[in-house]
Amino acid sequence: MKKVFLSLLVATSIFIGCQENSTDMPNETQTKIDMSDFIVHTDEPETFAKNDKNGKNCYSMQVLNRQLKENPGLYKKMYNVEYATRKFIAAKGKPVKPGDGGSGGSGSGDVDVAPINDGFGIVTIPVYVHVVYSNSNQNISDAQINSQIAVLNADFRKTNSDLNLPSGSTFANDATDSEIEFTLAGTFRNANSNASWGTNNAVKSAYPPVTPNTHLNIWIAEIGGGILGYAQFPGGNSATDGVVISPQYFGTTGFVAAPFNKGRTATHEVGHYLNLRHIWGDGRCRQDDFVLDTPSSDGPNYGCPSFPTVNCKTTDMTMNYMDYTDDACMYMFTDGQRNRMRAIFASGGPRAAFAGN
Length: 357
Known about the structure:
Elements: H1 2-22, H2 44-51, H3 60-70, H4 74-92, E1 123-133, H5 142-156, E2 180-191, H6 202-206, E3 216-220, E4 229-231, E5 243-245, H7 264-273, E6 310-311, E7 314-315, H8 335-343
């Protein structure tokens, strides 16, 4: 009887152990979708930040790296978001081909991806803007806020007037209308003596997001350190969900600073908020942004690069909103990026409420 009891105890312990471990490991059904290239944490953003002499600095990946250390469960959440994204795209259209980097193995870097028919129609995202200021310049005007909402709508709907692909470019078929729109739901103004807020979400703690499940919250606050902005990827804590942008890089009029004065910092950061990675995958040639029709690259581009700029044996898509080029020299998303953003609106997805799911 004692042996039987011990056997049952051991079996029970093994069962419980397996159950506990299952929360950290992918489900068996997830092996049907290739996740072999999935990566979250990367040291490359720190390298690029140290080498950045051009002043353009998005801190989204550094913030994500910190959050992964602070919250061990975040990796699994983001894995599940990525799995669901790939499964949705594969079910609706052309299957995801991870790790390709947009080269298709041909070296051309130009792979055409069709926009999936997801049935969501035009998705409208209501936006709350939190203006946190320590001086009159930082207390940006309503006109400056409205100019940014206009840029978001133009960029995400492909109605931006500066869409002008260079002669000889093979990317003409890739530029897309994401069918995502934005509307200003409200503005909150808060005077605060802090000269800068950094990237540890302190401004969000001081002024928490309002209904983040159904609204995009954007904080306009001086970050400091030459940092333009940062965003939280889908799957993170709702208490810190949203985008932070320094005031001089928000909108196109008023207190804005060239060459980041055309509203593309918000376009870039909202791209992260909607599950887009940097176009170079925050790594070298073999690290991917999980989008088929964006070419491989070994790092960000800056300024206004000449065309073609070639890295990793493919032509860089320097005009993509998820690169680091000047505002005047970025002007497109791709169909693959469109599909990826819209996948998170699916039922059960992290941004499903925006599509009424």
